[in-house]
Specification:
Chain A: It is a multi-pass membrane protein. Chain A: Keywords: Cell membrane, Membrane, Transmembrane, Transmembrane helix, Transport. Chain A: InterPro entries: BPD_transp_1_N (IPR045621), MetI-like (IPR000515), MetI-like_sf (IPR035906). Chain A: This is ABC transporter permease. The complex is a heterotrimer of chains A (about 325), B (about 525) and C (about 700). Chain A has helices at about 1-30, 35-40, 50-60, 65-75, 90-125, 130-145, 145-160, 175-210, 215-220, 225-265, 270-280, 280-310, 310-315. Chain A has about 325 residues and is mainly α. With about 525 residues, chain B is α+β, with helices and mostly antiparallel strands. Chain B has 18 helices and 18 strands. In chain B, strand 4 and strand 5 (about 100-105) form a beta hairpin. In chain B, helix 1 runs antiparallel to helix 11, helix 8 (about 240-250) packs parallel to helix 9 and helix 17 runs antiparallel to helix 18. Chain C is of the alpha/beta class and about 700 residues long. Among the domains of chain C are: about 285-365, no CATH class; about 385-475 and about 555-700, Rossmann fold (3-Layer(aba) Sandwich), CATH 3.40.50. In chain C, strands 6-7-8-3-9-10-12-11 form an eight-stranded mixed beta sheet, sandwiched between helices. The chains are: A mainly alpha (about 325), B alpha+beta (about 525), C alpha/beta (about 700). Chains A and B meet through helix 2, helix 3, helix 5, helix 7 and helix 10 of A and helix 8, helix 15 and strand 15 of B.
Chain lengths: ~325, ~525, ~700
């Protein structure tokens, strides 16, 4: 197991180098100039000399190869450079925002797990009864409703029904947990619903599959209580594919927060991502891509490790 | 219903060329003056974008002005209640020499920076020299507007003298620019880039904090040189996406958004919040324009460009689009209602502004035939922002269809749209103009040869227009200047490198608690918040 | 089901509940019924309600099990034998499966009406069950120990330490060494045979009175099967546990069962002691079954006896005798369902003519099949169509060792194998799972590239053939797979499936010719041409295998690799396919490489036989020579382990199953690969890989003791 983790961790470096190279060149292919946008974006007649000066200041006039070398050497020293827009270190800009996004993502995951496992289990156990139908309708609705739209509905609903809106500025959970949660719970719910829907469906079908397995029949033949059969013999096996789904969805969630953060005005990396892409802030986009890549890899590793914990077959293979 | 009626009336007023600005503003001022300002409270307002850095001289976006303006004093400013009248900010009084080449300003005594140091003529000189002749590594976005300045002198600590090389009709107005923040000469001497990362001015509010992506705060500067001001304890600018603003206004989380809302959002907030909000409306110092790529066939032929401009029924557009968008008044190259703008009578004589659209379209088709252009199919490069770009673009396409021109709508993300235009990689494009004041020297830049004015993306080269521009800038006699501007406008509309589509309407929604704020045609002006107070 | 048990709860079930209350961990003397039966099933009816209709899976079944005896239920797939036993456990699939009538008296209580909570208490404690698939019947994520201890916790309320001690004891009882350590291991660390031992341990955990084993050895190799059955038989007699064994393997029944119930189409058609049923079958179905099985203990017939036709659809079964349609002895009376006829000696049969058969006994002319004990002469000339020399296939795997270590391991799936196949003959290739027989087939089909050695087909070396030559050669070598269902694309019609290679290789000029050829092929394999419009799922297993054969024949091959072509089929169908293969061989001059694990089938069809073990050839000989005088200890063990459907023969045989398990191919024994299980193994066996020794012309065996 240890060697497995070591091996996986070792794979992170080459993967990230690949991501770094790819994203550097792919961004440079995109047309558009951050300097023009920055200075002429509001229609002001800024002269060409000024534009050139700013370009030079940001180092955008250097040849591509030298920019690439700067980027890669920067990476080697864990320096993601400075934002072309704000001139602040990319790490700092991301650092102030990433925790909020991660918190929303984790809360959404917790919500999804808390909803999906019981609902999926109920749905499977009461297959083709009204309970199952209700759960399935709820789950399908979750897949059909885009989270940003649900987010907008949530906001409108709060506004119209309670004449209340969550505070607009996020604070740290450790600073003021109640205020923090009163803000972040809504985007977490909006995103978590879809997430839960995916996981619920997986939980249901997975448990249904597992309940058809021979070892469930064996457990019944042993005279075990139904509850014990479902919990000990059913759930643990059924959870394996659900964990994969949760892991994959978590990684996508970070990407999916882009729109939801806009709707709820959450100052997270999703919003930053949109802004950075819109502005052509290469260094910022590069930094964010690296971050998402790292999260993606770590989540996948976590999923694999969890698999190992739950499934002895994987454990011994590794 | 009431809103629609009101908008309709406003649009109608604008089209008749009356000074609706003054009218609306006058009413608002009368109401505001009736009450005694209350001290205290924090104003929370939304800003839909965020400034990249803190240097007034280098920035161009309203997203900068709204949070930063309260921290700085200017030499002059526009009188918010009587725009475009200019009034003093740091300057207590000023005189202009008869030849119009020497401007002498007396500063308010006892002006202090937030760090307690005194603000003197030296600081004004240092700040303007930084704008006029920026040191290496400093961006001065409006350097060109001060190219007439020969020197800035400080005969005594309370006096600043600007000497010009030649007459500049816009000079005084340019000194009232909200971008020309006065910095501390000492700080600049130590580091010319000091303002990029620090906010240290003499304005009504001290810098509190800026949390990237989240908010910006300011606290009352007790040493502000105008006694009793500001009224507010502080302000809080919250950065949010425009989609979140409407909800936040309706939910009372922010008390204002100063740029302006689209009619639909304005109505939603008004319907949702009822009498908790006030709506201010005025023609906006911004217009949607159509740019032809004069370097590309068939737009190298003025007949073709003019034909396409002729096909657009601006008068009908005005009534139709004002209901659904921020587009509204018909105007030439200057904002209708501005003293130097064309009157309706003058306007209707220009190509593309006649009221007989059938005649105009017949003429357009004749022109196309003459030019040997048939079955024209072109791309319209547009910005993928619904309000008002898409709406305007769709309208234009429909109009051109009626003279047999097929247009493909190519809607690009802002950055790509900008890049398509500046690289000349387009047939025709929707662009916009807008600045902090109506002065022709600023507002005509979109119509000058690309060589001297890179923001004209048509690639045009028209020495006559450039000459007329230079002449009007040097003409201090208002009547003569107006004549030159008219001549410029006629030539520009005939050549039609760039033509106006419609001007915009500005609707600002505030909480009824917000008092003392004056509506102006520009969302860059009057944002120092010194006069603003909260009823509760 | 639910409604029924509710009704029961308010009525008769009460008394049962009173009786069943709490019981001491050690069972009391069993509560037998009047006839002295522990389990007494009477007139049981079970229906499955499906969307297409009601399947009457069990239709009036009655049988008894007395304490300590082993009762077999025999029948082909779909006859209801498994459903009968699941019904006893009340483990029918919900909500489709329903008991609609009858009673199941067990230990003084009626299990049909017993409330579910009491039924649950009974399961695993008084009645235990072992299932067919040891690979999937254990929960993969839980340790073996916990899975054995579960019934101890639930039924006997043992504490952890006691339960663990008991679990260890049970593992030792079922013959798993190193029990203490094994308790914490997971199922995937056990072989199939070991897992089935664990299943038995679970079954025995609470000292049940009855153990039901549903096809307990079907998924296992013949040598392991013998070990497991010996173990069960031994435990049954030592612990006095009554057993119900459900199987389709008549050999097993003959060897181990005390009494036999033969089921057909949801009913028991014959019942009696094993000796009675095997030596004096009184139902035509039983007679047919016994004759259809290829026998190891009797001279081979030219053709296998087959029971033509298919079992009836249980959704709409015939009102009369359900076997009548396929019966050679059918008379007019068969339109009425026959009563059960007692022919004496506790032997009953549900046949109108049972008494007649009894009276005629062995003299009845229709009962005797005219046997052709002389094998048909076959061409025997030295004209090898396929020549395999020194063929090896090694798979290189990497295995992790320690924290950062990796080691390369080589699995020698096929190791230095040489043999030839003569034109027009059938070469049988036998061995247990993991012996490399399938890999060998794939090598010949060139689905794998050999590591070394040569394969010559029709005088050309497959290894050096150019791509275009290979294209031509591929047509000449075809394959028939084991699983006729998964090897046919479910989204294509039978016609499309057979036509596919014809169009790919452009063997026919146009679509019409293709259609005609498909029709011709279908009739060649005994199917109706109109079946070309059908989809695979609409066909029975036997018909699907015929389609597989037709597809192979489409290419006009000269060699067909048959990879376990009949092992998934029922006995009666198996005979039909084997006969078909033989007919086709005769008509079309085909050559077969027949890969199988069933010694009797291989014996029947092959002219020569190759025996493989762990990638190596153990013995090659002519069929009669091999079965009459097996030389290699492994061949001997294989033959000894395979039970034959004859009570007299089986009871007379000493039971000496081959001990141990197949070694891991990752770490094969040095020298002779068989030495770890070989009764004759000596030190020398570990030192040298035994070369093949030619004992007699054409008879080679790789053993240094010969």
């Amino acid at each position: 197991m240890l060697s497995y983790i070591a091996h996986r961790l070792g794979m992170i470096v080459p993967t990230l180098i690949g991501v770094a190279v790819l994203c550097f060149f792919m961004l440079r292919i995109m047309p558009g100039d951050i300097v023009e946008l920055k200075l002429r974006g509001d229609g002001v007649a800024v002269t060409e000399e000024v534009i050139q000066q700013e370009r030079a200041r940001l180092g955008l006039d250097k040849p591509l190869a030298s920019q690439f070398v700067d980027w890669m050497t920067g990476l080697a020293t864990l320096d993601l450079g400075r934002s072309l827009w704000t001139d602040k270190p990319v790490v700092e800009e991301i650092g102030t925002r990433v925790w909020v996004s991660l918190q929303v993502a984790f809360m959404a995951t917790i919500i999804a797990v808390l909803i999906a496992i019981p609902l999926g289990t109920l749905s499977a156990l009461y297959k083709d009864t009204w309970i199952d139908y209700v759960v399935r309708v709820v789950a399908i609705a979750g897949l059909a409703v885009p989270s940003f739209w649900l987010g907008m509905l949530v906001i409108m609903g709060l506004l119209l029904l309670f004449r209340w809106l969550p505070p607009i500025e996020t604070v740290s959970f450790f600073h003021d947990p109640i205020r923090n949660l009163s803000i972040l719970i809504w985007p977490a719910l909006a995103v978590g619903y879809r997430y839960a829907a995916v996981a619920t469906r997986m939980m249901r079908s997975s448990l249904l599959e597992v309940l058809k397995e021979d070892y469930i029949r064996t457990a019944r033949a042993k005279g075990l209580y139904e509850r014990l059969i479902v919990v000990r013999h059913g759930l643990r096996n059924a959870l394996l594919p659900v964990i994969t789904v949760i892991g994959v969805e978590f990684a996508f969630l970070i990407g999916g927060l882009v729109v939801t953060e806009q709707v709820f005005n959450i100052n997270g990396i999703g919003k930053l991502f949109v802004q950075a892409v819109g502005r052509g802030d290469f260094t910022m986009v590069q930094g964010l891509v690296m971050l998402v890549a790292v999260i993606f890899i770590l989540v996948n590793l976590a999923v694999d490790l969890l698999y190992g914990v739950l499934d002895p077959r994987i454990r011994s293979k590794a | 219903m009431g809103i629609l009626h009101r908008t309709g009336r406003l649009a109608a007023l604008a089209t008749t060329g009356l000074a609706t600005t003054a009218l609306t503003l006058g009413l608002a001022t009368a109401a505001g003056a009736a009450e005694t300002p209350r001290r205290g409270g924090t104003l929370t307002f939304a800003v839909t974008a965020e400034p990249p850095n803190y240097d007034c001289h280098a920035n161009t976006s309203f997203a900068f002005i709204h949070p930063v303006a309260p921290h700085y004093s200017l030499l002059l400013k526009f009188d918010p209640a009587n725009y475009p009248k200019i009034t003093g900010d740091l300057a207590e009084s000023w005189t202009v020499s008869d030849d119009g080449l020497t401007f002498t300003f007396k500063l308010h005594p006892n002006v202090k920076f937030h760090d307690g140091s005194a603000l003197t003529a030296r600081d004004v000189k240092a700040s303007y020299e930084r704008i006029i002749n920026p040191p290496k590594g400093v961006v001065s976005a409006r350097q060109a507007t001060f190219d007439a300045v020969a020197s800035v002198e400080t005969p005594d600590p309370q006096t600043v003298v600007f000497k010009l090389k030649g007459a500049d009709a816009s000079f005084l107005a340019n000194l009232a620019s909200p971008w020309n923040c006065v910095y501390s000469a000492d700080k600049l001497a130590a580091d010319p880039k000091f303002p990029e990362k620090n906010v240290m001015g003499s304005g009504p509010f001290k810098f509190g904090e800026h949390v990237s992506g989240s908010h910006w705060t300011g606290q009352r500067f007790d040493g502000y040189f105008r006694q009793g001001e500001p009224y507010l304890d502080g302000f809080r600018a919250v950065f949010m996406s425009s989609s979140a603003v409407t909800n936040a206004l309706q939910g009372g989380q922010v008390q204002a958004e100063f740029r302006g809302l689209a009619p639909a959002d304005r109505d939603r907030v008004k319907n949702g919040a009822g009498d908790k909000v006030q709506v201010h409306e005025a023609p906006w110092l911004a217009s949607l324009i159509l740019v032809f790529n004069a370097k590309k066939k068939p737009f190298d032929d003025p007949r073709v460009r003019r034909a396409l401009s002729l096909a657009i029924d601006r008068w009908q557009a005005s009534t139709a689009l004002a209901k659904i968008s921020i587009l509204g008044p018909v105007g030439g190259i200057l904002r209708p209602g501005y003293e130097l703008a064309a009157s309706e009578a003058e306007l209707t004589k220009m190509p593309g502004f006649g009221k007989d659209i059938k005649a105009a379209r017949d003429e357009a088709m004749l022109l196309l035939r003459e030019a040997g252009v048939t079955g024209l199919t072109v791309n319209l490069t547009n910005r993928n922002v619904n309000m008002p770009y898409t709406i305007g673009g769709v309208y234009v396409i429909d109009q051109l269809r009626q003279i047999g021109v097929t247009v493909k709508h190519e809607q690009l993300e802002t950055k790509l749209w900008q890049s398509a235009m500046s690289s000349g990689n387009y047939d025709m494009a929707i662009d916009f103009t807008g600045d902090f004041m109506d002065d022709p020297s600023l507002n005509l830049t979109k119509y000058l040869s690309t060589e001297i004015s890179p923001v004209n993306y048509s690639g045009q080269a028209d020495p006559l227009l450039d000459k007329l521009y230079a002449q009007q800038r040097g003409e201090t006699d208002k009547a003569k200047r107006a004549q030159l501007v008219r001549e410029f406008e006629r030539r520009a509309m005939e050549q039609a490198y760039v033509v106006p589509i419609l001007w915009w309407n500005r609707s600002v929604v505030l909480s009824t608690d917000v008092k003392g704020w004056e509506m102006t045609p520009s969302h860059y002006l009057n944002q120092d918040l010194a006069d603003v107070w909260l009823a509760k | 089901m639910r409604a029924q048990s509710d009704a029961v709860r308010s009525g008769a079930g009460r008394s049962g509940a009173g009786q069943g209350g709490t019981r001491a961990p050690t069972p009391n003397a069993p509560n037998l019924d009047a006839a002295g039966a522990l389990l007494s099933v009477r007139d049981l009816h079970v229906h499955f309600v499906t969307s297409r209709g009601v399947v009457k899976a069990v239709d009036g079944v009655s049988y008894d099990v007395k304490p300590g005896e082993m009762v077999a239920i025999v029948g082909e797939s779909g006859c209801g034998k498994s459903v009968t036993s699941l019904t006893v456990m009340r483990l029918l699939a919900k909500p489709a499966g329903r008991i609609v009538g009858g009673s199941i008296q067990f230990d003084g209580r009626d299990l049909v009406t017993l409330p579910e909570p009491e039924m649950r208490e009974l399961r695993g404690r008084d009645v235990a069950m072992i299932f067919q698939e040891p690979m999937t019947s254990l929960n993969p994520v839980l340790p073996i120990g916990l899975q054995i201890m579960e019934p101890l916790f639930v039924h006997l309320k043992m504490d952890k330490a006691t339960a663990r001690a008991r679990a260890r004891e049970l593992l030792e009882l079922v013959g798993i060494p190193d029990a203490e350590r094994r308790l914490d291991m997971h199922p995937h660390e056990f072989s199939g045979g070991m897992r089935q031992r664990v299943m038995i341990a679970i079954g025995l955990a609470c000292n049940p009175k009855l153990l039901i084993a549903d096809e307990p050895t079907t998924a296992l190799d013949v040598t392991i099967q013998a070990q497991i059955l010996e173990l069960m038989k031994d435990l049954s007699s030592r612990l006095g546990i009554a057993m119900v064994v459900i199987t389709h393997n008549l050999g097993i029944v003959a060897r181990y069962a005390d009494r036999v119930n033969v089921m057909y189409a949801g009913r028991i058609v014959e019942h009696g002691t094993a000796e009675e049923v095997f030596s004096r079958p009184r139902h035509p179905y039983t007679m047919g079954l016994l004759r259809a099985v290829p026998r190891l203990d009797k001279p081979r017939d030219a053709r296998l006896y087959t029971i033509e036709g298919m079992p009836p659809n249980l959704m709409n079964p015939p009102t009369g005798c359900r076997f009548a349609e396929r019966c050679e002895h059918r008379i007019d009376a068969c339109v009425q369902y026959p009563a059960v006829v007692d022919v004496g000696r506790g032997h009953t049969a549900a046949c109108h003519r049972a008494a007649e058969f009894e009276a005629a006994d062995r003299g009845h002319p229709n009962l005797r099949l005219v046997r052709n004990d002389q094998p048909t002469p076959r061409p025997h000339h030295d004209d090898p169509i396929l020549n395999v020399a020194g063929l090896s296939k090694h798979f290189h795997l990497s295995r992790r060792t320690g924290l950062f270590g990796r080691e390369k391991v080589v699995v020698k799936a096929v190791d230095d194998v040489s043999f030839n196949v003569q034109r027009g003959e059938t070469l049988g290739l036998v061995g247990e799972s993991g012996c490399g027989k399938t890999t060998l087939g794939r090598l010949i089909l060139r689905l794998e590239d050999p590591t070394s050695g040569s394969i010559q087909f029709d005088g050309r070396d497959l290894g050096s053939a150019t791509p275009s030559e290979m294209r031509a050669l591929r047509q000449k070598i075809q394959v028939i797979f084991q699983d006729p269902f998964s090897s046919l694309n479910p989204r294509m019609t039978i016609g499309q499936i057979i036509a596919e290679p014809l169009s790919v290789y452009r063997l026919e000029p146009n679509a019409r010719a293709v259609r005609d050829r498909v029709a011709e092929l279908l009739s060649q394999v005994g199917l109706h041409p109109y079946m070309s419009e059908r989809y695979p799922h609409e066909l029975s297993g036997g018909q699907r295998q015929r389609v597989g054969i037709a597809r192979a024949l489409a290419m006009k091959p000269s060699l067909i690799v048959c990879d376990e072509p009949v092992s998934a089929l029922d006995v009666s169908i198996q005979g039909q396919i084997i006969n078909l293969l033989e007919d086709l061989q005769e008509r079309l001059g085909l050559t077969y490489l027949f890969i199988a694990h069933d010694l009797a089938v291989v014996r029947h069809i092959s002219r020569r036989v190759v025996v493989m073990y762990l990638g190596r050839v153990m013995e090659i000989a002519d069929r009669d020579e091999l079965y009459a005088h097996p030389a290699h200890p492994y061949t001997q063990a294989l033959l000894a382990a395979a039970p034959v459907p004859d009570v007299v023969v089986e009871r007379a045989r000493a039971s000496r199953p081959l001990q141990g398990e197949l070694p891991s191919p990752l770490n094969p024994p040095s020298g002779c690969v068989f030495r770890t299980r070989c009764p004759k193994a000596t030190k020398a066996c570990a030192e040298v890989v035994p070369p093949p020794v030619e004992l007699r012309p054409g008879h080679l065996a790789a053993c240094i003791h010969l």
